[in-house]
Amino acid sequence: MAQAQTEVAQQPQGLPQLNVIADGSYTNQVAWLALSFVFLLIVVSRLILPRVTKVMGEREERVANDLDTAERLKTDAEEVKTAYETAVANARAQAQEVILGAKETIQADIAKAQADLDKKIGAQANEAEASIVKARDEALAGIDAVATEVATKMVEKLGGVEPTDKAVKDAVKSALSTVKGA
Questions:
Q1: How far is 107 from 110, CA to CA, in rounded Å?
Q2: Is the pTM of this model over 0.70?
Q3: Rounded CA separation 31/40 (Å)
């Protein structure tokens, strides 16, 4: 048992990589480290770095193309916006011209209709005046006969005398002439 304790005591404690003093493999570890570093450096510089560089270049080119496309599209959009605004302004101007033209046409139609109506009303007024004058003249023409007949009847009834037609007609004419003259 004592021997077992000594054997256990003589075995190095901890990780063998860190126990460089006990087994003398320090130089051996440094050599493997250098060799592994050189191998990784060659693999990275020959295989991985060119691929990464290529991908980065493609990415930069894609970003530059995207920026150019975005700038071109922005310019196109501004041109379209300007064309749209110009078209809207022209359409508004044309609409104003159409509205003014329609307004003038409507006003001319209204004036023509007003003139026609005034002419028609004037003609109807003239016809009405003529018919009134005609009716008055007919009434006045017939009034002589009626007035003569009424005067004859009145004199017969009131006076009991039968007057002559000529005397009654002269009296009615004289009475009508004073009424017409007044």
A1: 5
A2: no
A3: 14
What contacts 148, CB < 8 A, 6 or more positions away? 165, 168, 169, 172
For residue 175, which of 144, 133, 141 has the smallest C-alpha distance? Answer: 144
Per-residue model confidence as pLDDT tens digits over 131-169: 998 887 777 777 777 777 787 888 778 777 787 777 777
The two structure tokens encoding residue 171? 């009296």
Closest-CA residue to 149 (of 131, 160, 129, 163): 163
Between the CA of residue 103 and those of 14, 35, 48, 92, 113, what are the distances in Å?
A: 107, 98, 80, 16, 15
CA 111, 113, 118, 119 torsion: positive or negative? Answer: positive
Total number of domains constituting the chain: 1
* Residue 6 placed within a domain: no
Residue 25 lies in a domain: yes
